[in-house]
Amino acid sequence: MSRLKQVCMDRAISPNEVKVVQWLLDHALGDVRAYRLHPVEELHVVGGCSCGCSSLYFSSKRGSLQRLADEVALYPDGQTAGLMLWGRDGEIVWLEVYDFEPESSHRRPDVSHLCTWEDWGRRDLGRANQEQQKI
Ligand SMILES: [Zn+2]
Predict the structure, then answer these.
(1) How far is the CA of 66 from the centre of ligand 1 (A)?
(2) What pTM did the predictor assign?
(3) Ligand 1 center to 49 CA (angstroms)
(4) 2 C-alpha vs ligand 1 centroid, how far in Å?
(5) Which of 2, 81, 95, 128 places its Cα 20 to 30 Å from the Cα of 51?
(6) Domain count, the chain
(7) Distance 57 CA to ligand 1 centre (A)
(8) Is residue 17 part of a domain?
(9) Would you say residue 57 lies in a domain?
(10) Is the pLDDT confidence value at 123 over 70?
(11) Residues 18-64: pLDDT tens digits?
């Protein structure tokens, strides 16, 4: 989940990624109506992360971002990773996947793996207080 080293990508969002982003919007932290005005299917992947994690960038613009959603991927074998969706001014900018265990963020979460913190029964208070981030 390095925020500095980004690799260029240029492709349409995949059907599974659409479902992941939509699921995160459905479980958003606040009002994300502005972020639903543009269809998620039309998001374009412009960057990935060089560390090998499955984080995706949908915009090359940088600056202050708003955290839209913060949930968990729980894999069938018990491994877990964190997922956050970041945006700005109605534009979804970044799907962040971060490690709970070494390299768990390198897996590509399927929508069937997604789970809320409440469902999982744990809260990470350190991250819960973090509402803004610069990349
Ligand atoms: Zn990374």
Answers:
(1) 19
(2) 0.85
(3) 4
(4) 4
(5) 128
(6) 1
(7) 11
(8) yes
(9) yes
(10) no
(11) 999 999 999 999 999 999 999 999 999 999 999 999 999 999 887 89
Burial 56-94 (b: 16+ CB within 10 A, else e): bbbbeeeeebbbbbbbbbbeeeebbbbbbbbbbeeebbb
Q: Ligand 1 centre from 28 Cα, in Å? A: 22
Residue 64 CA to ligand 1 centre (angstroms):
19
Inform me whether the pLDDT recorded for 97 exceeds 80.
yes
